């Protein structure tokens, strides 16, 4: 398991990309993606060391990130890359300290690799993405 990215919710991806470029020297990685299934616009930005930040902007009336944005936005989730997505989810379910809130599904912003979301007993939201084949 390794850290893949940290996700932030923002009102405007374009403004946030400009601000992060100025502050941290990062640059967009890939194209902006609209994920209608998750109700978000997504843009990854990459720091000089290769670290990734995912920017999420609500898309549509039922976007799950809208509520977080109304509270001020900011950090939304942490994503880890795992070699065995199903095994990781099974282990987390068995721990009793986490609930899978979104079963594995393709993520258009990450080359359609499967992702799943988990909420922990401490109310942390974690995303898990399967390693590239």
UniProtKB/TrEMBL annotation:
<dbReference type="GO" id="GO:0046491">
    <property type="term" value="P:L-methylmalonyl-CoA metabolic process"/>
</dbReference>
<protein>
    <submittedName>
        <fullName>VOC family protein</fullName>
    </submittedName>
</protein>
<keyword id="KW-0479">Metal-binding</keyword>
<dbReference type="InterPro" id="IPR051785">
    <property type="entry name" value="MMCE/EMCE_epimerase"/>
</dbReference>
<feature type="domain" description="VOC">
    <location>
        <begin position="2"/>
        <end position="131"/>
    </location>
</feature>
<dbReference type="Pfam" id="PF13669">
    <property type="entry name" value="Glyoxalase_4"/>
</dbReference>
<dbReference type="GO" id="GO:0046872">
    <property type="term" value="F:metal ion binding"/>
</dbReference>
<dbReference type="InterPro" id="IPR029068">
    <property type="entry name" value="Glyas_Bleomycin-R_OHBP_Dase"/>
</dbReference>
<dbReference type="GO" id="GO:0004493">
    <property type="term" value="F:methylmalonyl-CoA epimerase activity"/>
</dbReference>
<dbReference type="InterPro" id="IPR037523">
    <property type="entry name" value="VOC_core"/>
</dbReference>
């Amino acid at each position: 398991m390794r850290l893949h990215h940290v996700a932030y919710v923002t009102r405007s991806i374009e403004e946030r990309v400009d601000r992060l470029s100025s502050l941290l020297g990062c640059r967009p990685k890939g194209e902006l993606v609209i994920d209608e299934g998750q109700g978000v616009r997504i843009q990854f930005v990459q720091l000089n060391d290769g670290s990734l930040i995912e920017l999420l902007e609500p898309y549509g009336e039922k976007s799950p990130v809208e509520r977080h944005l109304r509270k001020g936005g900011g950090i939304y989730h942490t994503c880890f890359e795992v070699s065995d997505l199903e095994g990781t989810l099974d282990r987390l379910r068995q721990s009793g300290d986490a609930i899978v809130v979104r079963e594995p599904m393709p993520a258009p912003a990450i080359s359609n690799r499967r992702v799943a979301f988990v909420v922990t007993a401490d109310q942390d939201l974690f995303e898990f993405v399967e390693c590239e084949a």
